[in-house]
Amino acid sequence: MIGFIKLLSRNRLSLAGLVVIILVIFTALITPILPISDPDVIDTKNRFKTPFTTDALLGTDHLGRDLMSRLLWGTRLSLAVGFCAACIAALIGSALGIIAGFYASRVDNIIMRGIDMLMAFPYILLALAIVAALGPGLFNALIAVAIVNIPFFARNIRGVTLGITHKEYIDAARLSGMTDTRIIITEVLPNVFPVIVIAMSTTVGWMILETAGLSFLGLGSQPPQADLGSMLGEARAALITSPYTSVVPGAMILIIVMAINLLGDGIRDALDPRLKSGVLSSPRPRTLVANYNEAKNLDRSELLSVSKLRTQFHIGKQNYKAVDGVSIYAKKGACLGIIGESGSGKSVTALSIMGLVSSPPGIITGGYVNYKGSNLIHTNDQELQSLRGNKISYVFQDPLSSLHPLYTVQKQLEEAIKAHQPVSQEEVYQRSIELLKSVRIPNPEQRAKDYPHQLSGGMRQRVNIAMALANDPEIIIADEPTTALDVTVQAQILSLFRELTRERGLAIIFITHDFGVVSQICDEVAVMYAGKIVEYGPSEMILNHPAHPYTSRLIGCVPELGKGKRELASIDGLPPMVDRLGHGCAFAPRCEKTISECLNNDIKLKNINANTQVRCLKPEIHL
Amino acid sequence: MLGYILKRLLSAIPVLLGISIIVFLIMAMIPGDPATAILGSYATPENVEKLNRDLGLDKPLFKRYFIWLGNILQGDFGRSYSLNKNVIDEVIERFGATLILAGTSFIMCSLIGICAGVLSSAKQFKLTDKLITFIVLLGISIPSFFLGMMMILLFAVHLRWFPVSGMWPIYGARDLTALISHLALPASALAVVATGVIARLSRSAMLEILRQDFIRTARAKGLDEKTVIWRHALRAAMVSILPILGIQAGFVLSGAVYIEMVFQWPGVGRMLVDAILKRDILLVQGGVVFVAACYVIFNIAVDVAQHLLDPRIKA
Amino acid sequence: MQTILEAKNLLKNFPLNRGIFRRKKAQIHAVRSVSFKVKKGEIFGVVGESGCGKSTLARMLVGLTEPTNGEVLLENNKLDKSQKARLPKVIQYVFQDPISSLNPRKTIRQVMSVPLTHLQKLSENDQEKQIKKLFKAVNLQEEFLDRYPHEFSGGQAQRIGIARALAANPRILVLDEPVSALDVSVQAQVLNLLSSLKKDFGLTYVFISHDLAVVETVSDRVAVMYFGEIMEIGPAQEIFTRPKHPYTKLLAESAPKIGTTLQLNEKSNTELPDPIHPPNGCAFFPRCNNSTAKCLEVNPKLRMHENNVFIACHNPIE
Questions:
Q1: In sequence order, what E strands does B114-209 have?
Q2: Is the residue at B13 inside a domain?
Q3: Strands C204-209 and A335-339
Q4: CATH-assigned architecture of domain A2-29+57-277
Q5: CB contact, 8 Å: A316 with chain C?
Q6: If you count residue pairs, one on B and one on C, with CB atoms under 8 Å apart, how many are there?
């Protein structure tokens, strides 16, 4: 609860909304004991007194009734009716939604058909029909507004419940011997409840507006009793001569609803776990770069080198050092592998090169990327954009979500070409077909017309690769391109990559977590742990004679086919969190060879032979 | 495609039947004797009995429903006693006026709402975003009838830019300029709330899309940011924005009732409120069924548009 | 050895919603008649690629999914309605995604106490003792008990999932890709834990994975699934070192191994069969290098080949 208020208070406007609404509710509660005149006493002699006169702070209306008093009593009434309607709608709607979502199939079908029926009316028609049948009156208006809002809750809550019902913990509860009713109460409801609260907090305002609306039309509260809506309705006749009689109740509705909406937004944000972690922010077109001295006089002969790259994620007060001083070199016609476990910073390294790390929360805080003499970290947006997908292109992990779901393969390929080359429509079509052929997609003319969801996983990844090849790149950065694929398909995609290096002379940076894959296609490999490279050199050398204890033990953990049933070697402990790294070697707590020097100072990456570098004080020596 | 439209039209039949049942049942709930309600308390017993026979009220409920349904299908919605006119003629005439108002308003709120939402999402957390978010919040919190009244005060009474109310000038030509000047205030007042809602939901739909992998792919391809936002992201976001537009059309149609009251617009909403207050049940019944049916047809159009937009939905 | 679990002609179709006007409903054939026996105390591996029906099979074994046809036999007994409720006491399930198998709004203690209350009917005191014992068995600290699921790493959460399954005191554990969401170093920890638990608790495992190497390291016997059917079944070592079915061979050769070069063993660009309209003949036919005309027409039945190896193939590899 305290945490919730803390989260809420982060949003100043919501806090203001909370304060206002508390004030309004408090005033409404104490209205009966306030020293104000009776709201319904008619005094036609004193009609239309302007505000700020004695005895009538806000003036009087067309029957000479005190507006202040009527406003307070009206507010009381409007709030009560709005909240009641919201509670009724939430209760019935949520119950229907949970039942429909949980039991699915036939029950769901019957309930949702009924809900669809109600949704088929523009809401006011239904409300009008109900009021027409029951007769005008505040209570009937309340019922009408509640009924009209049931579908909103039912649909929302059903959707959420359906999602939860498919979660594995519901299956687990079932296997733990729980009955359906118990599962609904202890497993589903606690998880749906925040959604109900969010839905209520965002609709209470609406319901107050709607009941006020019905009263405004003369269908809600009946004279002499008045809520805010009917005050406005009665004042309408005198709008031009005595506008304040309209402004007073109108402004009150605005204040109440605005405050509730502000508060509702705050509640929504505080309860949505995704917002807490900053996931819902949309990434900028380019990763943020902190202010630091950029490198001058870069070597023009290098194809691509990354030097002392540092990329961090700033989430709340935490600072995750995802990449901490990484240097790698891509060579023409060779494949460089970057291997590591999740959280080691391998993907972030790859994405940092072209500024594709999501920002916020990502930020590049050091290092440079040298591409033929220009620093890609500090180059201007136009130049970076002209290189992206042109000379340096990417292939990502998930082949389906990496393609636009609503564009055909052809359209996406053509777009990639046209982004960098001014070619005619005819030529661009020919080129895209050629690209599909070059990644060995059968029937390219047919496949070009397909949408991504119509292709198999392997075909989708081929399309992604074709897109990466669209402008004859020099470098392809592939971020776990085969992780989402089956082994048989993986073999095909890997052989395609190998061809690209051998035949086209491309430089490939290949991110993976699989030593088998490294062994099959990488010429060189960099092993990463906790944001740093711990070993870097020719892949054959490193795989056969790993020098860093982490590399050697990690390879030992890999189950290998053909060795039969056995115990596996394992590494105790967990990889460290990169937001609280201390001094010294990050692997030291899990290492068997740790000595006190390992813990004290940062350890440098040192050459142990002509080609291999290792970040370890006691590397394994192979003779 | 044609097959899909046909299928969608067929599936509307149960919905339309459902609507007719709901409306019929609600109207059947009316307490007391409808004949007395219609004829007023001075009616002679003979007249009441005659009307009851005319309305078929002496028959059981389900039979009455089928008779009523049969009549509706032949375009006979009964006769309005308060106007002494065929219900259907009055409804169609009034609905035309509502359509002009709500249609204009709907186009306004869709265009402005989506643009504001996209802009806001593309500039997330920046001043533009905050400004739009605040204006939107103000927009969805203001009662449209109050806004309408304030607009009359400011633009019609004080500034005299637009006429105070009505659809046509009392004297003078009923041409397009006259219509537009009469339409400007009510259509804007009506659009404000829906614009806010559409902007809000478009913003969150866009934010959801902008962090998808294919947006990163589009950027990695080297597309310029305008293309990424307004083509790739918006196109994908439209899949979730379109249904919102469908729902908001219902809200615009609903809000039109208030606006018609405030601006004395001769639409179907004002007709309904008058009919309820005069307890002209047949007029209410006919008006509700007719408008709801139109709304169902409109939603089919939205579904078809959705179908055209998203190839993943199979027929 | 005695058979503890048997699948008899298990078959599962999922209806596809295709509107009200179509008379014949389309179906996805997820599992197409699968039969096997698991012996007491063994680790039975099931391996296959995505969409081969291995998870559906697992869910049918523990009663989370109702089979369209066929039955599950526990110790040669058919399960009737009254016994179904007893099922979780005998057979438990460990999920692939350890975090999402824990209710985010419950502490670990609450999660753990559910099977102890509802299946074991233990008093609160006994529950406490049992929870401590189980946590010790899976190498977790007791102080974790009052934390919420999101505070754990994948490896820790998977240990909790295993402890929860053990709380029901079952004799069989169905492990559905229990390590595929974990990093290699953690994967080895969990696999080793599983093998020590098996000894301590006298368990029988059905171990499902897409990773051949993982399945081989843990299993006594292995079934290879493709497109909802078992292609080959037999002793683990036999299956992977001398595969008889062309599909098993393809799988074994495609798995990247350290120190091997990349080779392509398949006519590339072959499409997978359509699960809505399964072929009449062998599902692997279009991708097979050994196929004959017979394969296109007759779907081969699983039959004894040699050395306790059963295969479903007309032209096995010699």
A1: none
A2: no
A3: unpaired
A4: Orthogonal Bundle (1.10)
A5: no
A6: 4
Q: Is the peptide bond before C286 cis (omega within 30 degrees of 0)?
A: no
Confidence band of A199 (pLDDT split at 50, 70, 90): confident
Are the Cβ atoms of A239 and B122 closer than 8 angstroms?
no
Rounded (5°) CA angle B144-B145-B150? 95
Which chain C residue lies closest to B8 (C-alpha atoms)?
A: C19
Per-residue pLDDT tens over the stretch B272-306? 988 888 878 888 888 999 998 999 989 888 888 88
Phi/psi at A307 (nearest 5 deg)? Answer: -125, 125
- Would you tell me which residues 16-55 of chain C have a C-beta closer than 8 angstroms to some C-beta of chain B? 19-21
First and final C-alpha spacing in chain C: 30
Which residues on A lie below 8 Å from C114 (Cβ)?
173, 176-178
Residues A51, A53, A56, A61: what is their CA dihedral angle, to the nearest 10 degrees?
-50
pLDDT in tens, A314-367: 887 888 899 999 999 999 999 999 999 888 999 999 999 999 998 878 899 999
Domain, as residue range, for B125: 88-309
What 3-state class would DSSP assign to A393?
A: strand
Query: A471, A465, A470, A463: which is closest to A494 by C-alpha?
Result: A465
Q: Lowest mean pLDDT of A275-279, A387-391, B20-24, B257-261, name the range.
A: A275-279
Dihedral of the alpha carbons of B14, B16, B22, B24, in degrees to the nearest 10: -120
**CA angle, residues B169, B175, B181, in degrees to nearest 5:** 60
Specify the higher pLDDT residue, A125 or A474: A474
DSSP C213: H
Domain count, chain B: 1
* Three-state secondary-structure class, residue C149: helix
∠ CA C225-C231-C233, nearest 5°, is 90
Best B146, B253, B262, B297 member to test A by mutation, with max A CBs in 10 Å, is: B146
- Residue B121 is encoded by which pair of tokens? 């999402």
Tell me the three state secondary structure of residue C45: strand
Tokens of A347: 């993907």
**Pairwise CB contact (< 8 Å): C185 & A554:** yes
What's the gap between Cα C151 and its chain centre? 28
- C-beta atoms of C95 and A172 within 8 A: yes
Neighbours of chain C (3+ CB pairs under 8 A): A, B
Rounded CA separation C289/C266 (Å): 8
Q: What are the tokens at A188?
A: 């589903």
Inform me whether the pLDDT recorded for A623 exceeds 60: no
The token duo for B182 is 């009469």
CA-CA-CA-CA torsion for A43, A46, A51, A55, nearest 10 degrees?
-70
**Cα radius of gyration (chain B):** 24
Alpha helices in C168-261 (DSSP H): 184-201, 212-218, 236-241, 246-254
pLDDT in tens, chain C (318 residues): 788 999 999 999 988 765 444 445 678 888 988 999 999 999 999 999 888 889 999 999 988 888 999 988 888 877 766 677 788 889 999 998 888 899 988 999 999 999 999 888 889 899 999 999 999 999 888 888 998 888 888 889 999 999 999 999 999 999 999 998 888 888 999 999 999 999 999 999 999 999 988 999 999 999 999 999 999 999 988 888 889 999 999 888 888 888 777 777 666 556 677 778 888 888 888 888 888 888 888 899 888 888 789 999 998 887
* Separation between Cα atoms, residue A364 and residue A381, nearest integer Å: 15
Task: Tell me whether residue B62 is in a domain.
Answer: no
CATH fold group of domain C3-106+169-311: Rossmann fold (3.40.50)
B198 token code pair: 């559409």
Domain boundaries, chain C: 3-106+169-311
Q: Classify A376 as helix, strand or coil.
A: coil
Nearest to A586 by CA among A612, A616, A557: A616
